[in-house]
Every structure is written in C-alpha cells, then in structure tokens.
Amino acid sequence: xxxxxxxxxxxxxxxxxxxxxxxxxxxxxxxxxxxxxxxxxxxxxxxxxxxxxxxxxxxxxxxxxxxxxxxxxxxxxxxxxxxxxxxxxxxxxxxxxxxxxxxxxxxxxxxxxxxxxxxxxxxxxxxxxxxxxxxxxxxxxxxxxxxxxxxxxxxxxxxxxxxxxxxxxxxxxxxxxxxxxxxxxxxxxxxxxxxxxxxxxxxxxxxxxxxxxxxxxxxxxxxxxxxxxxxxxxxxxxxxxxxxxxxxxxxxxxxxxxxxxxxxxxxxxxxxxxxxxxxxxxxxxxxxxxxxxxxxxxxxxxxxxxxxxxxxxxxxxxxxxxxxxxxxxxxxxxxxxxxxxxxxxxxxxxxxxxxxxxxxxxxxxxxxxxxxxxxxxxxxxxxxxxxxxxxxxxxxxxxxxxxxxxxxxxxxxxxxxxxxxxxxxxxxxxxxxxxxxxxxxxxxxxxxxxxxxxxxxxxxxxxxxxxxxxxxxxxxxxxxxxxxxxxxxxxxxxxxxxxxxxxxxx
Length: 506
Fold this sequence. Notes:
Layout: H1 39-50, E1 58-64, E2 70-76, E3 95-99, E4 102-105, E5 120-125, H2 134-138, H3 141-185, H4 200-217, H5 222-226, E6 232-233, H6 243-249, E7 256-261, H7 265-269, H8 275-279, E8 284-287, H9 292-298, E9 301-302, E10 305-309, H10 321-333, H11 335-345, E11 351-354, E12 363-367, H12 374-381, H13 391-394, E13 398-402, H14 407-418, H15 423-439, H16 446-463, H17 485-505
Parallel strand pairs: 3-5, 7-8, 7-10, 11-13
Antiparallel strand pairs: 1-2, 2-5, 3-4, 6-8, 9-10, 12-13
Helix pairs in contact: 4-9, 15-16
C-alpha cells in the first residue's frame, strides 16, 4: 500500500500593502540661500502656493535680522484677478504666516497694507510663539515690525521693476548706437533686443489703481509711492511718464506741475482750460481715473513743485508788467459786458472775469480754489449711496471767464454797450454759459437743460428768420381711394408664390 503525499495545510492571509506617493514635493525654499535657488524653482513654488498656472511678474527673497528675525518670499502676479477691483475692503488670503516652518494662518491680512493686497507670498518667523492665536497676533508688537519691513521690501520690489526698465533703456540706447555705427560701416547686423518690451507698464496697467490708493492711506510711504505714479501728458503721446520725468522736462522758469482730470485724454487735450498752457508749451498731466481726484488731494507737491489743477481759479501763470497792464485794460474795455453777464447769470456764478486760460475758445467755466471740481462732482453723483442734499454744500463756486480777443465776445460787448434790453443778447449769454458748462465737464441740472433747449430753439429760430409765433405747416392729406404700398407688395408676393406652384405641377 503506497502512502499518499500529504499536502501541508495552508490558509489565506490578507495583507495590506501601502504604496506611498509624495504629493507635497515642494520644500520650504525660503529657508535656503537665494543664490542656490533657480528661477524655475521660484516659479514652481509660486504656482504651488497660489494655484496660478502662469509665472509671476517678479519676486523678492529676503531675510531680516536684528530685533526681529524672519524670512520671506513675495511675488507679484502677471495679471490682476478678475475680482481685484470689485471689493477693495474684502479680506485677503495672499500671505501665509509660518512660525518655525509650521503654518499658522493665511487669513491674517495685517502683514501688508490693504493697497498691497495683490502681492502673494510667505513669511516665516522664529520670533513668534508657536502656539500663537489670532487674537494674540493682533496685539503682537513683533508682527507690526515684520509688517513695516515687509512693506518696505514690497515697495522696493516694485521700484526694481522701474530700475530694470531704465537699465534696459540705457542698454538699448548703447545697442542702437552700435547698430548705427555698423550701418555706417556697411554691416547689416542688428540687435534682437532693441525693441524689448518694458515690464513696469505691464504692472501699472494691472495694479496702478492700488498704488494710487496707497497715496491716500499710507502717509509714511507717500514719497516712495509718488515715484511709482504714471500719467499720460500733452507731450507723452501713447506713453505714460512719471512725475520725475515731468519735472526733468520742465522749463527753467516753470515753478508748478499742471494737471487736469476728466474722462479721457482726447477730451482733455481739447479742453478750453488748457489752451493757455499748451500755447506756452507747458506740459499738462492728464488724470483719467476716478480715483485720481482723491489721490491728488493727498499729493499736493512733488520735489518742491506744487500740483495745480488747470480747471481751478487759482491758475496764475507768470505775467510780465506789460501783460498785467494789458489785462487791466481789457477789464476796463469789457466792463459793460462783465457787469451785464453777472447780472444776467445771477447766483449761477460767483463772478465774471477776463480769462487767463483761454486762447481760441470764447468762454470757460472754472471752479473756485476750494470745493469739488467738475470731475469730482461726476464721481460723487455716480456713488450708489450718494446723498444729494450734500451736493450744494460741497459744490465749488463757479467762475465765468471770457476771452477778450474772441469775435463773439467783442460783438457781445458792443451790443450790450448799445442796448442792454435786447432779449437776443440775453439768450446768447445764457447759451454761452450753458455751453461752457458742458465743455468744462459739468453736467446740467434738469431745469438748466430745459432752459438751454428752449433758448437754443429761439436762437436757431432767429438765425433762420422764422417768426417766433409762426404756425405749423398743414398736414399732408391722404384719400382712402389711394392703394397703400404695403398691400400692393403683398399682392405681388402672392402672385409670385402662385406662379412658382404652377411650375412645380408642370
């Protein structure tokens, strides 16, 4: 009898095997030496930090030592988020706070001021307690010191964009000079970087309004922020220049910086308020953002040069003794018209004077030195919760200015001197005033708009030699026997459809 092979008894055992995959492969690069980190590593860390697929516009990596020690990396995105300007006062979660490489919070928005809320990054400090709470953070003096230093570094990072563009312009100038020399020698080689695109204009287009908000909120850094401003001017063409460039382009005898605010550059260039400035070849800054009216109130001067609004009464250009005598003579010559206009316009204007603004236009309305300008009135009226009862209190007093050399003003002065009871002259004066309001950027009240329409209708009526009480033309008579064109067209369409149906049957 053959013994059968005895198989060993076995049992199934379930065993769990874990296959670990490292997802967070980004290390704390802010603890490393900046010289050992490549641009690709900085960009990769930015993308993992912000979930942004594009590379940042620029970054800064720094560490602070002394009474407070911390390390930080700050980034400026290439493009502003779509909702950046929707709610300026919303909480930002762009700066992550670490204590000894342990993340504490990303909701603490007091590390950077609100106007730098577009900057993203991390800050790691060994000077804070690890078990810190949000309430303790708000009262921690160390955190305030960190915030001040980070603000300075953030502004220095933005300023570096300007400096890089300047250095690039200098290099381009040298390369162009070399190209010209080579062209003279007959060589055809040209530099590929001659038309390199500048970086700071990209930043200003995306975040310029936030820098202007900094002028309003941050008095301690106002001088630094003023150097970052960019505006279009009467001589800059399609470019925007800094206040530093404006001052360097000023004439030797020019003492002030002149600007005008409005909706767009084209309308401001044609404004009667800047005619005398442009005639004297003085550069004028064009401010077209709504926030400019607020920001310029906090930036009254730059490098000792006062900022003067060209639409205000205080525009006083340097006059010679002969020009002053000429102005006094004009005032005497046009005294009948000046008095007549002041009496006709009444409380609408504070006074009527000979203008220092005008060259080609007949009249102009300017605001007093204190109170809202025309652009500021528009901005305030467009607010969702605007209080209409305060408008009269804050509205600036209006001054009506005349151009003594304009033919319309000369003729009006002659007619007033001859006969002040002429109703047509009164219509012309009121029409000129209403027109000057519109050209100066003011908006007409409903009552003024109705009155303006009625007066213009009378002026056009007299210009066409039509009687004021002329009757309406008789109505056109139409008999019922005449066929209407629409019915005739419908009959033709029906006949055409019947003809096409007959052809299909054939």
